[in-house]
Amino acid sequence: MLRKITAMTLGIGHILHWNDRNLLEFPEDLKQNKDRVYQLYIKNNFIEVLPGWINSLAKLTHIYVDNNKLSTFPAELCELKGLEVLCAPRNSITEIPSTLTALKRLTQLNLSRNRIRNIPGDVLNMPSLWLLDLSHNEIQTLPEVYPDGLYYGEILLNGNKLISVPDNLSRLKNIEYLSLAHNKLLYAPAMAFRSEANINIDHNPFLNYVPATIKYIIIVNLFIYLN
User: Which InterPro entries does its entry note (predicted)?
Assistant: First the structure.
């Protein structure tokens, strides 16, 4: 039977695990413990909406709402100034709100396996982000990237519909892993990546041009699929 509420039990370190509870909505019990919850795990439920009062959970640093039925984020989410990790894969989200840029401490954003078609340029260029996972969506194009001041270590864009990517992606100073696998790329970025980077362009069946400037890195670090 699907449930709306359940008894609240905080784990060690103010971490709340509410996974696999068949919840239909965000439990209002959280309001009574708003100053005690730092990390919230509420995966594998049936929640369609994050409530506006989520902004009252002012001490939240991590939110995991994987595998629910969310289609959007409330504006109030961006008032959680201490939020560092936002994970909402396997939902039905179609748009990334530009207001996420208000989350100045956000280092990890995982919106994989949703229905996203576009990435706002100001979100892609958030200087706090280290991990961006937008794999397995419906993204066809990327906005321009402005590498100066960006902190990215990992960007996952595999399983989309990308035909091309901005050349400036190759200028990200800290990038360790960039996955562009399983897209529709016609060519790889023209500039050389840092030698330590692993760039995955596996399973791009239309890829017909790889710039000479990155051939060595491709041989060493890439899993490449060419027809």
Answer: Leu-rich_rpt, Leu-rich_rpt_typical-subtyp, LRR_dom_sf, LRR_domain-containing
